[in-house]
Structure formats: C-alpha cells, structure tokens
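== Sequence, structure tokens ==
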Amino acid sequence: MATARKPLDPMDLAGIDDLLSDEEKAVRSTVRTFLDQRVEPHVADWFERGELDDVRGLTKELGALGLLGMHLDGYGCAGMSAVDYGLACLELEATDSGVRSLVSVQGSLAMFAIHRWGSEEHKQQWLPRMAAGEAIGCFGLTEPDHGSDPASMRTRARRDGDDWVLDGAKMWITNGSVADVAVVWAQAGEEHGGIRGFVVPTDTPGFSAPLIKHKLSLRASVTSELVLEGVRLPADAVLPEVRGLKGPLSCLSEARYGIVWGSLGAARSSLDTARRYSMEREQFGRPLAGFQLTQQKLADMALELVKGQLLALHLGRRKDAGTLRPEQVSLGKLNNIRESLDICRTARTILGANGISLEYPVIRHMNNLESVLTYEGTVEMHTLVIGQAMTGQQAFR
C-alpha cells in the first residue's frame, strides 16, 4: 500500500532540508526562534530610525547563544561546523543584513584575524570575551580612497623605539563606534613585512570612530570611520603570524562565506512575503496568485533561491572538508548576492505600492543588499577572480 506523501513545502520545493542533519536543523531552529522573539518585533523601527538599540545587550545575547565566532575552536568559541555557521547567517539575514553583519564582523573578521594570526596573548586576552559578547570587535581595512585595492592603503605603521605608531583612516567599518578592539591593517614598510595587522584597543589615545550617518542601507547597523592619529602601541600589538595581503584577504574570504548563505536569508524572507501577499491580495476579483505573470515571478524567484541554497550547502560541505578555495567563495558570493537582490526587487513588484512600506520587510532587504553587493568584494572583483581561475590571466590592472 502506497505511503501518503507529506505536502510539498512551498519554500523548499527541492527538498533541500533532506540534505541537512537533525543537528543542523536544530541550530537553524534555535537561531530562528531567538530572532523571532528578540529582533523581528523591533528591526523595522531600528531601520527607520537608523539606530540599533542596545547594541551591547544584543551582542551579549548573541554571545550567550554561541553565535559569535561559532565556527572557531577553543577560547570560549562554540567550534561548530561551517554549515552550522552558514545556516545561522541565513537566519540572521532573513531578519536583517545589519544583524548578520554584526555577527559576521565580530566572528569572521575580528575574531578570525586574532584566532588565525594573533599571538597566544592576543587570543587569551580577547577571544573569550568576544565569544561571550562582552567585548565587541571591528575590522579596519577599507579606506576612504582605497576599497578594492587594499595594497594601496595609506594608513602607516612606523617603529618608534620598541613601539608602533599608527596614522591613517579607515572607512565603512561595521561596529566601529561601539568596538572595544579594532584589528587594523597598515603599511609598515618592506623592512617590517609590508602590510601588517595590529590589535588596537579602542581606548588607546589617538583612536576615534566617528559614526557614519545618512545611510539608506544597513540602517540597523553601526557603521563608522576609524581615525588613527599617532596611535601608539606596544611592540606585541602586531599580529605575529602573517605579513602582506594574505592576512586581510584570508579574513575577507572567511566573511564572504557567511555572505554566500546570508544573502539567501534576505531573498527567502522577501519571496515568502510576496508569496503570502499574492494569496491574500485580490485584484480583478481574484487573488494575485491566480494570475500567470505572478506565478511566473514566484517560480523564477523560487528557482534562483533553490540554486543558491544548493551552491551554499555544497561550498559549506567543502569548507568542512577543508577543500574550499577562495575562488569558489567568490563564485558563491557573486551568484548568491546578485540573485538574492533580483529576488527582492521582483518580490517588491508583487507587493505593488506596499512593497516600499516598512510594514513589510522587502524594501528593507532590498536596500540592505545594495550594500552587501559591494562589500567584501564588488561584483567586478569577484568576476575577475573567477575569470582568472578560468583563464590563468590576471586582469585586475
């Protein structure tokens, strides 16, 4: 006798959930439940006001949940898998890109840099507190005039006796104004290894982090400039285990992996909102969902979401197996953010004029993804990374 099939989940048409373990589903469910209770009721208001309320309180709660540096081992970190981390990023960004950015910058940039390249003293001093959310970190690489070309950075580190002295400025720094520690990259000169990373307590004299205002994207996120004016650091402030661009680029690759998953959260939220809206909203005497053009939009969005999810899961399995390459992360970032942004834009058309209202999450996700599209590597940069992998020809200059 044939077994009755369970109803098809309209948001998982390909049955991707069958590829996840019970433990992975539990991680996803835990993150989703927390966000539904703690963040969803407030995030539209945060976005409208351009303020993330009680950043330190929220960060401590995220730490208590084990989300900060969750894919790192030891020093109070949860030591979970890359797929677990990816699923968490998807759920975080399904709520808001700004919340996912807070977690990503803390764990995949600031904490990862210290964990991978720092001294044992750096790790002991900062990582347990950062994992618990008791200390907030930021990552200073991008400069006002140098984004995609970090090798041309103007921030300088010079020796003065046994000390280092940093001068320069960084731009578009998530968490900057609330951070307790900044990982700052500076040109130290060839005699000192070129570009070096420094662990900078933000209460060091000469360090300031003015808040960036007038944003129309990532408004529920703290974004700052970092200004370094004669910031004097002891000799052991430098990250000892890396020299050159390998350091910051390894951190960026780590953060990009989270974006491969996270961007799909914004897409999923927008698609589900549009699907539900189309079934409730009537025009010409019938639900919008009953029109062929609406169904074509929904089917096309669902198809791209499924392909993005399969790609993210495949890259996550490779990362857990230790076989993931930076070029493959570029492939995932380029595809998933581009398609997610298109899903949000299409979902907005189904909602009509309501699509621009913060009563629904779609316009917020769409605006946020305009930032995610260009940070951690622009479309152009990832295109050229993939092109070089395919041809062996470097076309950046």
Remarks:
- The mean pLDDT is 96.
